[in-house]
Design brief:
four-stranded antiparallel beta sheet
Length: about 80
């Protein structure tokens, strides 16, 4: 489980350290949240963490696949 620790808060930014496995003895990552522009940026990856970008097409493909499976199982509720 990931652990977040608020390090700094200003009028515009929140800066968090994060620990991917909850182990605060490992090297932390840094997440910057811009409250005014409503953006989130990973400024530094934590030790043993990874990043994966999922495209819109991949997300849509997954959604469609899940919906088809639900239709086949007659469990189609939105």
């Amino acid at each position: 489980m990931v652990t977040f620790r608020l390090i700094e808060e200003t009028g515009q930014y929140l800066t968090y350290w994060y620990f991917p496995n909850g182990n605060e003895d490992e090297m932390y990552g840094i997440i910057l949240i811009d409250k005014l522009n409503e953006t989130v940026e990973i400024q530094k990856m934590a030790h043993d963490d990874f990043s994966h970008i999922v495209t819109v097409d991949e997300q849509n493909e997954l959604r469609n696949s899940i919906n088809e499976t639900r239709k086949e199982k007659k469990d189609f509720h939105f």
